[in-house]
Every structure is written in structure tokens, then in C-alpha cells.
Write a structure and sequence with these properties.
single chain, 37% helix, Rossmann fold
Amino acid sequence: MKMYYKTPLSKERLDKIKILAFDMDDTLLDGHGKLSDGNRAALDRAIEKGYHVVIASGRVWSALPKDVLAVPGIQYAITSNGARIRDVHADKILYENLLEASSVEACYPWMKDPKVMLEIFYDDQVVADRYCMEHLAEFGRVKPKSQHYVLTTRIPVDNLWELIEENKNKLENINLIFADQEKRLRYLKEIKEQVKGVTAVSSTPENIELGGPTTSKANALDALAKMLGCTKENIMAFGDSTNDEQMLLHAGIGVAVGNAVPELLDIADYIAPTHDDDGVAYTLEHLLGI
């Protein structure tokens, strides 16, 4: 296991932490998409000590892992890369930052590529074209874990574009999935350069995720911190992918698990063991004494 400090983490800095924000996939969850016993026990101890434990996921609300939501002390969930904050206990939306209809329309040239699988997030659910869901390997979803996740969290529809037109002013996120990686990188560059009013990030090597102009886990976490009477110095955030980058940069302490993408390893304050080595539990124990 490889872990090390990237910048000095003084006791003064660590003592300020009150909020623990966790990306889900390949960070808090292991390679099988499960919450390990070690990480679950660490969350329980953190909650018992009075820390605010916050989910900060690219997933939509309906796709959040049930074993994580079953942790009684988790009260807040940031979903769809920061499009929404939900009070889990009250089942109430506290914050919303959606795509604008005009920005959605500006993305149509890339969204309408028949070789790209399209998913839309709205009303806490995800819908996708039925044909794509029946031919996932054609669109880059080749791993059994990935296919299982899509088939169990997406709603197949025959009229996806009709739904887009009806709901383009309430979209939380648009997910484009590629089998062709050269095309994915080209589209990502083009969208960033040509479309105003969207953020374009990736949470997996196969996708592009489109959100509103100020939608990010960082902005949502900042809004939640203010609701809790905290500042960014009170936040420790954990992640593994490029859609976590702004959150780690914004937090008082940013932690990248050892399996994170190189961009995150470069900017993190601390690099923990991997998601399969209970990196979250290790970090909470060794940095915060949890």
C-alpha cells in the first residue's frame, strides 16, 4: 500500500475538520461496488464522534447504494455531480443547480451521435435509450460490473428525445458514453471550447458528464458547509476521478485514494490506500484518530 503526505498536515489543520465528504464509486465503495466492513465501521465511528458524513456522488439519488444510505447517521447527499443536495432524513431537497434549457440544446450536435449512448438525469432518476441498454457492449459498457450497474439503475425508454424536449429545463446531468476513446476525448475538448453554460467532466474512462455552468461537487459542498455553519477549512473530501478534482481543491484537506487518476494524485493533500484496501478507514484512523 502506498500513501504519503503531499503537503504538511498540521494538527491545527486536522483539528478544524468537521465535514467528511465521500465520492462513492471506487472511493468509499470497493471494486465490487460494495461498502466494506472496514469503511462502514469507520463511518459509524466518525458519526459517533460528531462529524458530518456527506455523500458526494456523480450518481443520481435513485442510484445511490442502499448499503451506504443504510448508515443511520448519514444525513446529507450531494448527487448528480453537485446538481442537488438532499436531506436524507427529511427526504427534502435543500439545493438545486440544474442545466439550462439553452445549454442542453447547444449540446444536441454531440448528444445526437448514434454511436454514443445517451443518459439523462432528472427528477432523481436516470433514463436511457432501450436499444442502447440492450446492446451495452457496443457503447463501451463491456465489463460485467458496469453492465449490471446500468441495467439496475437506468430506466429504458423508447422515446428518449421526446423526454429530453419535455424536460430540458429540469435536467440534473447528461451522460454520454463512448466505445471510441479518441472520439470521447475529441468531443470533450469540443464541448469545453464551443458550448457556454455547461461543465464537462468524466467519472469513468468511457464517459462525459454534462452539468450546469456552476454545477460541481465543490460548489454544492460549499453550499452545504454554509448551511452547517462551516467553511472550506472544515472539510475533508475524498475522491478518485476528475469529477472530484474541484471538490478536493476546494476542501481544507483533499484526499485521493491510491487508485485515483493521475490528475487527482497530483493535486491531493494526501494519498491514501486504494478503495480495495479500505483507504477511507485507514485515512480516518491515521489522520483523525477515528
